[in-house]
Amino acid sequence: MVPVPVRTHTVAVAYVTCPGCQVPQMVGDDLVSYQCFTCYMDVRFHTCPYCALPQSVLARWRSYTCGRCQRKVDRPHRESYPESTKAMRSEGVGYPYPKL
Ligand SMILES: [Zn+2]
Ligand SMILES: [Zn+2]
Fold first, then answer.
1. Would 35 be classed as within a structural domain?
2. Does residue 5 sit within a domain?
3. Which of 2, 46, 87, 93 supports an S-S bond with 14, CB 3.0-4.6 Å?
4. Is the predicted pLDDT of residue 9 greater than 90, yes or no?
5. Does residue 73 fall inside a structural domain?
6. Residue 50 forms part of a structural domain
């Protein structure tokens, strides 16, 4: 059997930067969370309510510092799937709060 070549151009992916280790990686663009391939942290996506920047944040962060407007953002305790920010929309990376 000849392996079928992976047709990457048909796979929709997003490039996101892990907020834990700052390593850029490729994930499926409709994911709402993923585990970093490098540091194994759970990464989620959240849209800043102040400047509307969709960004990647660590799942364990209850609050984070927005990567663009630098404001403190509180994440809701539960996010329903349709409201979750997806990887394809992620344009930035959040920082821990307080920012180190
Ligand atoms: Zn990482
Ligand atoms: Zn912001």
1. yes
2. no
3. 87
4. no
5. yes
6. yes
Q: How confident is the model at residue 4 (pLDDT cuts 50, 70, 90)?
A: low
Ligand closest in space to the Cα of 19: 1
Residue 95 is predicted with a pLDDT of: 96
For residue 21, give the ligand nearest its CA.
Answer: 1
Structure confidence by residue, pLDDT tens digits, 48-87: 999 999 999 999 999 999 999 999 999 987 766 667 888 8
**Domain of residue 29, residue span:** 12-96
CB neighbour list of residue 31: distance below 8 Å, 6 or more residues apart? 14, 86, 87
pTM assigned to the model: 0.80
Nearest Cα neighbor of 45 from 37, 30, 13, 72 is 30
User: Ligand 1 center to residue 87 CA distance, Å?
Assistant: 15
CA of 48 to the centre of ligand 2 (A): 5
* Region of residue 38 (phi > 0: left; psi between -120 and 50: alpha; otherwise: beta): alpha
Q: What is the tally of structural domains in the chain?
A: 1
Give the integer Cα–Cα distance in Å for 6 and 61: 35
Ligand 1 centroid from CA 23, angstroms: 6
